[in-house]
Inverse folding.
């Protein structure tokens, strides 16, 4: 009984809904900011954790990462055995599928774990423990780099709006907001895609609520730039936002409809204390 229980995957089955190209914004960001770490690794393994009922996101992750790190291998991990069986025909050189959960059943220490739309069904108080477990599986930091990366977040059904947290072996680092600018009315529209650690904290008195409030105000002030297009308005907005918030990226990423902020600036007090204690 003990052996059988110990081998059981950690986690619960998700809804499994997915669509081709749904995670393109997250993939594009990962390739840009983590490509060098993947290239440096002697065995660059990326895990698509909880890829869902169809294997599209794992197939696409391999293609996108190999444009920047050609030796990268992708392992799709799913807790539902039938989904793994359905994905097996899509295996190829550099792409495999395995049955598992938050224990991440791959040899060694992955250079990347991507967990998109996985934690939405969990309770907020469970997030820190899942993060801790996944970060413990990452490749450790070395003299030449920062180690592996966990990217955990949520997007809409067709990938127009996406928010994710990036974590290293030491814990949370940044929060990234990404959107198709032509579909955006105001930045706070992204609030519905906040990851589980933040979505219930978008209330007055919480840092993420203050950030989105200031984001909307900067967007409104940049309205004259709309005549040059939504991209120019977004860039101006983020420039103004950077005066009061620790934005970590620059114009190259802003042009993609992204902005990245240090985790500490948005973390709720309880989550910050919990993460600090666990990592």
């Amino acid at each position: 009984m003990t052996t059988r229980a110990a081998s059981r995957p950690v986690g619960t089955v998700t809804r499994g809904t997915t669509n081709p190209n749904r995670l393109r914004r997250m993939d594009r960001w990962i390739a840009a900011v983590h490509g060098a770490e993947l290239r440096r690794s002697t065995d660059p393994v990326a895990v698509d954790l909880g890829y869902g009922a169809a294997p599209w996101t794992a197939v696409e992750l391999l293609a996108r990462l190999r444009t920047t790190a050609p030796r990268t291998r992708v392992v799709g991990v799913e807790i539902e055995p039938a989904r793994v069986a359905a994905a097996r025909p899509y295996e190829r050189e550099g792409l495999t599928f395995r049955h598992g959960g938050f224990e991440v059943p791959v040899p060694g220490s992955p250079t990347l774990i991507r967990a998109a739309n996985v934690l939405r069904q969990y309770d907020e108080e469970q997030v820190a423990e899942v993060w801790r477990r996944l970060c413990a599986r990452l490749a450790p930091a070395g003299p030449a780099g920062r180690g592996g990366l966990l990217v955990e977040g949520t997007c809409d059904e067709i990938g127009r709006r996406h928010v994710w947290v990036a974590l290293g072996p030491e814990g949370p680092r940044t929060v990234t907001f990404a959107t198709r600018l032509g579909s955006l009315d105001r930045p706070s529209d992204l609030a519905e895609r906040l990851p589980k650690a933040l979505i219930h904290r978008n209330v007055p008195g919480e840092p993420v609520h203050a950030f989105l409030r200031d984001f909307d105000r900067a967007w409104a002030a940049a309205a004259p730039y709309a005549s040059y297009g939504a991209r120019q308005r977004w860039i101006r907005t983020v420039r103004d936002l950077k005066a009061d918030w620790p934005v970590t990226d620059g114009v190259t990423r802003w042009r993609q409809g992204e902005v990245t902020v240090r985790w500490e600036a948005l973390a709720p007090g309880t989550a910050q204390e919990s993460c600090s204690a666990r990592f």
Summary: Residues 2-179+261-278 form a domain with the Rossmann fold fold (CATH 3.40.50.150). The longest helix spans residues 24-40. Residues 121 and 165 are 17 Å apart (CA to CA).
